[in-house]
Design goal:
The structure holds two protein chains of two kinds.
Chain A lengths: L6 H17 L5 H4 L1 H10 L19 H13 L7 H14 L2 H12 L5 E4 L15 E4 L5 E9 L9 E7 L10 E7 L5 E8 L3 E15 L3 E2 L5 H16 L2 H16 L2 E2 L2 E2 L4 H29 L8 H23 L15 H11 L9 H11 L5
Parallel strand pairs in A: 1-4
Antiparallel strand pairs in A: 2-3, 3-7, 4-5, 5-8, 6-7, 9-10
Helix pairs in contact in A: 1-4, 4-8, 5-6, 5-7, 7-10, 8-9, 8-10, 9-10, 10-11
Chain B lengths: L6 H17 L2 H9 L6 H9 L18 H14 L5 H15 L2 H13 L4 E4 L15 E5 L2 E12 L6 E7 L10 E7 L5 E7 L5 E13 L3 E2 L5 H37 L1 E2 L2 E2 L4 H29 L5 H26 L10 H14 L4 H9 L1
Parallel strand pairs in B: 1-4
Antiparallel strand pairs in B: 2-3, 3-7, 4-5, 5-8, 6-7, 9-10
Helix pairs in contact in B: 1-4, 4-7, 5-6, 5-7, 7-8, 7-9, 7-10, 8-9, 9-10, 9-11
The chains are: A alpha+beta, B alpha+beta.
The complex binds flavin-adenine dinucleotide (FAD).
Flavin-adenine dinucleotide (FAD) sits at the interface of chains A and B.
Chain lengths: 383, 374
């Protein structure tokens, strides 16, 4: 065993750090110049799509290099990509799509010109996703499907050009069978998007009503009735990404800075034992979680599969995200109530919204209670 | 010992419940929170007509001679209804301080207006450098002849925009974190030198940042003794904590009951969610947190109304327990509703946010736990 990165890995880390230093737009430019940033990543050799395989333009990273890459990107708060295209749909297209579908959709995903949303959940199909009822009926001539139904909680549907969607093509047999994976353009007149306002007043999720939308069979991924298998692989992908460990490392440092800016008596909030202990506990758990990620990585590097530990990442990672948001809320003190108004501590304005928003992390991408059931069954062999 | 409500208290509770049922569903509340003032003047007048605003004042002051227990009964119902009218700021924070520490002239001038609904008040106590320490005050009041000149800034002053009179905590002597040298003044909200930034709070109420720039008050406006204001301020804090705790108990009751009702009706995996053991246990824990909170609220309220020596410690324990229980009940109500729990459309979102804010008022759970164990 060796806890240190190899010389080559350290050299790679330096290369990533230097690249970020040279290319990451500063401060306010971050948003307006994000296009240039992604262009630079791309020219560096596929770093814009670091998780894609080389055959599709991704870089030749070893698993350790990919870990280092992700860590450095998170630590430097580089602009994130919307996850739906690059992170979620692309792997499905690569694994199960036709060459035509790959050529048609991957370029727009990669350059960010086409936004995607994920149309899985329905009013009756949340944790029990296989219960979905949106119907897709093949036309008599076999050229297209007619889709009818409703999706809910669809993140960013209101800015999406396309939706990747799970539909039901057969209701006989077990629920998991008879699900078909379709790509649906959002500008179809049969698509209606209604906003859902979430805790704290923001609009990111939507209801999507689908009425008599004709979807050509060319927009079906893989075989009819096999959509569940394709989507399940993707869900695993989604979950490991949702742990946000490196972001939490950074967020905890920021929370400490915030607490140090809050005066309490002669010192600061970081001197208050109850608060400091909570910070310490989180830091200890994060150290352990970070290393858990490395253990998983080591197994993958050695040619194995990620192993049972990978399943706890989303569970623990999201719990930690929520607890960090609690620290910031507590540090904001009375100003937490003033949410959205620039009064009191400078960080307070965002602390409340972040706390409210973080409640969703243990609900989406597999609610924690259900995740624990999955682990108990698949990892621990408990029924 | 008698832990049952009196006949009058039962009647009071029934009339509140009926009123809230008739006038206060979540869509009506949403209308109020989006209105200009953030509450309904009509409702407020009805509160006065029903005698609720005068309940806690002594008969000598024109009230009904009620006790802290009556206030608890009312606040618990306000918590269940998520009432936005400025009862806490006007009656509990402002009113009880006047009735307990005001001079006879001050009482005569202010209390009748509170009782008949024509006078609103609040208390400006929080400051940026204080975090949750009540005694940490940098706002100054400097004597000038018989007058005092107030300078400083107060934060998150509840319902300040609609208040006619504001009790302001100031430093008249001593170091900025000393309990000695604090003086409270009753300041007309329209005084020269007062400027406000008003904003809606995340729980649907209203608050303001208030700056006092050479605000002149007369010596008559001093509430209690010069330099001895900490006693008054701490009393306001204790009374408010008891009221907040009762409100939180009411809100928690709605949350745990709504969660039970929702999980019974929501089906996933061909079963109502309420049949899954982990959720049953979670709801049982929510109920436990609620019950313990209710018990300690009652105990602390009775100790305080009997001026017991144990009241102060119990109130610290209470604010800790309420903060912890509210967080658990609130977070799990959201969690067990799944995506629905995240929507502004369901009322639980609003109860969740109110409980979140209650923890930040008059010292959060860590602050009071530390005082409890000290
Ligand atoms: C902010 C946000 C963004 C989202 N974005 C998207 C998106 O872009 N696309 C998309 O398709 N979906 C999206 N979702 C939906 C998300 O995947 C679902 O909310 C999630 O799957 C949970 O389903 P549900 O909301 O129906 O809750 P339910 O399934 O009704 O669950 C409610 C509660 O019951 C518990 N529970 C359920 N079953 C069991 C069981 N068997 N045992 C024990 N406990 C159980 C759950 O853990 C949860 O606490 C989003 C959700 C949110 C909140």
């Amino acid at each position: 065993m060796d806890i240190e990165f190899s010389q080559e890995d350290l050299a790679f880390q330096k290369e990533v750090q230097d690249f970020i230093k040279d290319n990451l737009p500063k401060g306010m430019d971050l948003w307006t110049k994000r296009g240039e940033w992604f262009q630079a990543l791309r020219e560096k050799g596929g770093w814009d799509v670091a998780k894609w395989p080389p055959a599709f333009g991704g870089p030749e990273f070893t698993p350790t290099q990919r870990y280092i890459f992700d860590m450095e990107m998170a630590r430097h708060s580089t602009p994130p990509q919307l996850p739906f295209g690059v992170g979620m749909l692309a792997p499905i297209l690569m694994n199960y799509g036709t060459k035509e579908q790959q050529d048609r959709f991957l370029p727009g995903i990669r350059d960010g010109s086409v936004n995607w949303c994920q149309g899985y959940s329905e009013p009756g199909a949340g944790s029990d996703l296989a219960n979905l009822k949106t119907r897709a009926e093949l036309s008599a001539d076999g050229t297209h499907y007619v889709v009818n139904g409703q999706k809910i909680w669809t993140t960013l549907a209101h800015i999406a050009h396309w939706m990747f969607c799970l539909t039901r093509t057969s209701s006989t047999g077990v629920k998991q069978e008879g699900i078909t994976f379709l790509l649906i353009p959002m500008d179809d007149p049969g698509i209606e998007v209604k906003p859902i306002i979430t805790l704290g007043g923001s609009h990111t999720v939507n209801e999507v009503y689908i009425t008599d939308v004709k979807v050509p069979v060319e927009n079906r991924i893989g075989e009819e009735g096999k959509g569940w298998t394709y989507a399940k692989g993707l869900l695993v992908h989604e979950r490991t990404g949702l742990a946000g460990i490196q972001n939490s490392v950074l967020a905890l440092e920021k929370a400490k800075d915030n607490a140090r800016s809050v005066k309490v008596g002669q010192g600061t909030l970081m001197d208050v034992p109850a608060f400091r202990n909570k910070v310490g506990a989180l830091e200890a758990e994060l150290l352990a979680l970070e290393f858990t990620e490395l253990r998983t990585l080591a197994q993958v590097s050695a040619g194995g599969d990620p192993g049972p530990e990978s399943s706890i990442m989303k569970l623990k990672g999201t719990e930690i995200q929520q607890r960090i948001s609690e620290l910031n809320l507590e540090a904001a003190g009375v100003y937490g109530a003033a949410w959205g108004n620039p009064v009191g501590h400078s960080f307070a304005k965002g602390a409340t919204s972040a706390y409210l928003g973080a409640r969703a992390t243990t609900i989406y991408g597999g609610a924690s209670e259900v995740q624990k059931d999955v682990i108990a069954k698949n990892v621990l062999g408990l029924g | 010992m008698d832990l049952s409500y009196t006949e009058e208290q039962n009647l009071l509770r029934d009339s509140l419940q009926k009123y809230i049922e008739d006038n206060y569903d979540i869509s009506q509340r949403n209308k109020l929170t989006k209105s200009d003032t953030g509450y309904s003047a009509t409702n407020w007048q009805q509160f006065a007509d029903l005698g609720w605003l005068g309940m806690a004042f002594s008969e000598a002051d024109g009230g009904f001679g009620g006790s802290a227990v009556d206030t608890m009964v009312m606040m618990e119902e306000f918590g269940k209804g998520l009432v936005v009218e400025p009862f806490l700021s006007t009656v509990v924070m402002f009113g009880s301080a006047i009735s307990e520490f005001g001079s006879s002239a001050q009482k005569e001038q202010l209390i009748p207006g509170i009782i008949d609904g024509t006078l609103l008040g609040t208390v400006a106590y929080a400051e940026l450098q204080a975090h949750h320490d009540l005694e940490n005050i940098e706002t100054t009041a400097t004597a000038e002849g018989d007058d005092f000149i107030i300078n400083g800034t107060k934060s998150v002053v509840l319902h300040a925009a609609s208040a006619d009179q504001i009790i302001v905590s100031t430093r008249t002597s001593g170091a900025s974190d000393s309990k000695e040298g604090i003086s409270l003044f009753i300041v007309d909200a329209a005084s020269n030198g007062i400027s406000r930034t008003d904003y809606p709070t995340v729980d649907g109420l209203r608050a303001s940042e208030i700056t006092f720039a050479d605000v002149r008050v007369s010596g008559d406006q001093l509430l209690g003794q010069l330099d001895q204001g900490y006693t008054v301020l701490n009393k306001i804090a204790n009374r408010t904590i008891l009221a907040l705790a009762a409100e939180a108990v009411g809100a928690m009751e709605v949350l745990y009951k709504d969660t039970i009702a929702y999980t019974k009706q929501r089906e996933q995996f061909d079963h109502p969610l309420s049949e899954f053991q982990v959720l049953k246990h979670r709801m049982t824990e929510m109920f436990m947190e609620y019950s313990l909170s209710k018990s300690l609220t009652m105990k602390a309220t009775m100790l305080e109304s009997q001026n017991s020596a144990d009241a102060q410690r119990t109130i610290h324990a209470l604010k800790y327990l309420i903060g912890k229980a509210s967080r658990f009940v609130g977070q799990n109500a959201v969690q067990l509703h799944g995506g629905m729990g995240m929507t502004e459309e369901l009322r639980i979102a609003h109860y969740f946010k109110r409980l979140m804010v209650i923890d930040s008022q008059f010292g959060n759970m860590d602050h009071h736990l530390e005082k409890f164990v000290a």
